[in-house]
Design brief:
Blueprint lengths: L2 H22 L1 E3 L8 E5 L1 H13 L4 E5 L3 E3 L3 E4 L8 E5 L2 E3 L4 H4 L4 E6 L2 E6 L2 E3 L3 H8 L9 E6 L2 E6 L2 E3 L6 E4 L2 E6 L2 E3 L10 E4 L2 E11 L5 E3 L3 E11 L5 E6 L8 E12 L3 E8 L6 E15 L1 E9 L14 E14 L3 E6 L6 E13 L2 E2 L1 E5 L1 E6 L9
């Protein structure tokens, strides 16, 4: 046999071996019993595919073909995983049970816990929460509701091109995580759906949410205690309650929020734009190092708001000022229209006044008229302010 023939056979052997390895590392959920009819519970099939991918000593991919897959409940635990990278490529739709009683008392519908280097590309997670919303809006005795997609105590997570919609409660929860990147995500729930925050982040660092469209019945993005180094950019928010830091200060001993950037965001018809919200209760928490930059408001009720006297129905507040210390918050290049005359409302704590507030190049109008600003217990500086007039 000629040297060329030997080389050709060797090349084919290597190529076929590589192809086989790649094929063996792709785990199709249908091969583990998943049905794409939207009626058969495929939870076990997804978990079986996860178990095999998790046990692999090389990077693995779980593939979800087109179709509708009913998932009653799925908990993906990565604590014992050997694979250093697991990818989920989803062409189909994952459906929660339409009967809210099936999962309404669970905290999570789909949960990833103690996973590392997990990436999710494409697909739709549909929480089918309308039944529970109707129950709650009718003031009936209903389950609390479940979060659609949760990442807990996990690192190096990527979600790209994913749609999450109609969750019973929060759409996405990022809890005690490091280095999470959400990009090109679409999150939808009707404007009257209760407690359906788009993305809620708490006790995490290095989270970025970019180039996404979020419309819900609550905050588009909510930032809880214990967060640092968050980057939010290129978001279209509406309907919803805006992007909120808080509520904070429910507990007396509480971790703070620092180093948050929110830039190039458009709010359309939302209740709030950029908001910091703290309970009127004693607390040792803080908010510092926040930049809001290049923001467009379109008919927003409260474009810029700090509310440190948050106390719904005047319950559970001991008639004290908020203990949360807010400092070094910058609003730069905030433009557009307010749905109310007061476009800037800085209602800070009487015991811990806000300090280091900067308003730079703010131009907000109300029915083609100048807007007003209200500042209580707030200290800072203003430059290039056009509308409203300075109240600091």
């Amino acid at each position: 046999m000629s040297p060329l023939a030997i080389f050709s056979l060797f090349f084919l052997f290597i190529f076929n071996s590589s192809l086989a390895a790649n094929t063996n590392n792709m785990y199709n959920v249908q091969n583990y019993g998943a049905k794409s009819n939207g009626k058969t519970d495929s939870s076990k099939a997804f978990l079986s595919a996860w178990a095999v991918a998790c046990a692999s000593t090389t990077p693995s991919t779980i593939y979800v073909p087109r179709g509708n897959y009913l998932i009653h409940n799925a908990y993906f635990n990565g604590q014992t995983c050997k694979s250093k990278a697991i990818t989920m490529r989803i062409d189909g739709t994952l459906l929660a049970p339409s009967d809210y009683n099936v999962i309404g008392n669970f905290e999570n519908w789909i949960k990833f816990e103690k996973v590392n280097s997990v990436s999710i590309y494409g697909g739709t997670f549909d929480g089918q929460g309308s039944g529970l919303w109707n129950c709650k809006n009718s003031n009936k005795n209903c389950p609390k509701g479940t979060t659609a997609l949760t990442f807990h105590n996990s690192n190096n997570i990527i979600m790209s091109g994913v749609t999450v919609q109609n969750s019973q409660m929060f759409q996405i929860l990022v809890d005690e995580c490091r280095n999470v990147k959400l990009q090109g995500v679409k999150i939808f729930a009707p404007g009257n759906s209760p407690n359906t925050d788009g993305v809620h982040v708490k006790l995490s660092s290095g989270v970025s949410i970019m180039n996404s469209h979020i419309g819900t019945g609550d905050d588009c993005i909510s930032i809880g205690p214990g967060n640092s180094n968050l980057w939010i950019e290129g978001i279209a928010c509406g309907p919803g309650h805006g992007i909120s830091i808080g509520s904070l200060g429910w507990k007396q001993q509480e971790l703070g929020v620092q180093n948050v950037t929110v830039k190039s965001v458009t709010f359309t018809g939302t209740t709030n734009g950029v908001r910091v919200k703290t309970w009127a209760r004693p607390s040792n928490g803080f908010v510092r190092g926040v930049l809001y930059q290049h923001i467009v408001m379109v008919n927003v009720k409260n474009p810029i708001i700090i509310d440190q006297n948050y106390c719904p129905n005047h319950e559970s507040c001991p008639h004290q000022g908020s203990g949360i210390k807010i400092s070094d918050v910058t609003y730069e290049d905030i433009r557009g229209t307010s749905a109310t005359e007061v476009a800037v409302k800085l209602d800070c704590s009487k015991t811990n006044p806000c300090s280091g507030i900067t308003l730079e190049d703010v131009n907000l109008s109300y029915k083609n008229q100048p807007t007003q600003a209200s500042c209580v217990n707030a200290r800072g500086r203003v430059s290039g302010l056009e509308k409203p007039t300075n109240c600091l």
